[in-house]
Amino acid sequence: MEKAPDAARAVPAPAVVMSAVRYRWPRAAADCLAIDELVLAAGERVFVRGPSGSGKTTLLSLVGGVIQPQAGTVTVAGQALDRLSAGARDRFRADHVGFVFQMFNLLPYLSARDNILLACRFSAARRARLRARNTSPAAELARLAERLDLGGDVLARAAAELSVGQQQRVAAARALIGRPGLIIADEPTSALDADRQQAFIDLLRGECAAAGAALLFVSHDLRLARHFDRVLDLARINRVAALTEPRP
Ligand SMILES: Nc1ncnc2c1ncn2[C@@H]1O[C@H](COP(=O)(O)OP(=O)(O)OP(=O)(O)O)[C@@H](O)[C@H]1O
């Protein structure tokens, strides 16, 4: 349920709290992640680094409630995800979390416009947040399209027909529309050249700041880390990594 705006302003819950979390993939011989505590403040922008295979994507999947830990709790915007049924978790995610994945996960046969608006169609909370700001999904789509350089006929074209850069910007608009409190981005800039990377990060940061959204961002490219409030070295907080990898 949406909090009353006054209550939400008075005591902003942390965007994410992970507590004593342990996760092992099905059929894996060992745990992938063991994290005692991880807190992401409301509105905080965190860059997650770590070697390939260290569990960065797994961490994002836990935070997004896509997978469930075998032990411990993941709390997003004050809601413990393990207290929700699978269906309620899906609805909570649609309401409160925007994802920008490496492979974008757009529906290829739908237009860019419909891909973006789908995020609002599935979420009464996203629509309500827009209404509370005297705007609508269509008006917010137009604003984001302008900000994201999705002009001309791009919005009308099927996602499968768009360039990689256009698809990425459509995915960002879909994540941001309706102002979810948490944006999760997994290598969203890997297909872009340096100039476009910079522009994309600026935009993501600006939109998250305007919406008060926290940003959890994974990349191999450490040069991007300076744009964030904090760098989280997964190898340092993951006790599995500490136990199995030699420290320098
Ligand atoms: N769906 C899955 N089923 C089983 N094991 C998985 C699955 N996804 C990831 N793993 C395993 O979990 C570990 C962490 O993978 P993960 O993708 O989270 O790492 P990563 O840090 O994001 O890697 P990269 O930087 O290469 O994307 C790896 O050993 C991987 O093989």
What does this structure look like?
One of its GO terms (molecular function) is transmembrane transporter activity. The structure is a single chain. The chain has one domain (5-244): Rossmann fold, CATH 3.40.50.300. The protein is built from 10 helices and 9 strands. It has helices at residues 5-10, 56-63, 86-96, 112-121, 124-132, 137-147, 164-176, 194-211, 234-237, 239-244, and strands at 16-23, 33-40, 45-49, 71-76, 79-80, 97-100, 182-186, 214-218, 230-233. The strands form 2 sheets. It has a 5-stranded parallel sheet, with helices on both faces. Strands 2-1-4-5 form a 4-stranded antiparallel sheet. It is globular. The model has no long low-confidence stretch (mean pLDDT 89). It binds adenosine-5'-triphosphate. Adenosine-5'-triphosphate binds at residues 25, 28, 32, 50, 52-58.
Question: What labels would you give this structure?
Answer:
Rossmann fold; single chain; globular; binds adenosine-5'-triphosphate; 10 helices; about 40% helix; four-stranded antiparallel sheet; about 250 residues; alpha/beta; five-stranded parallel sheet
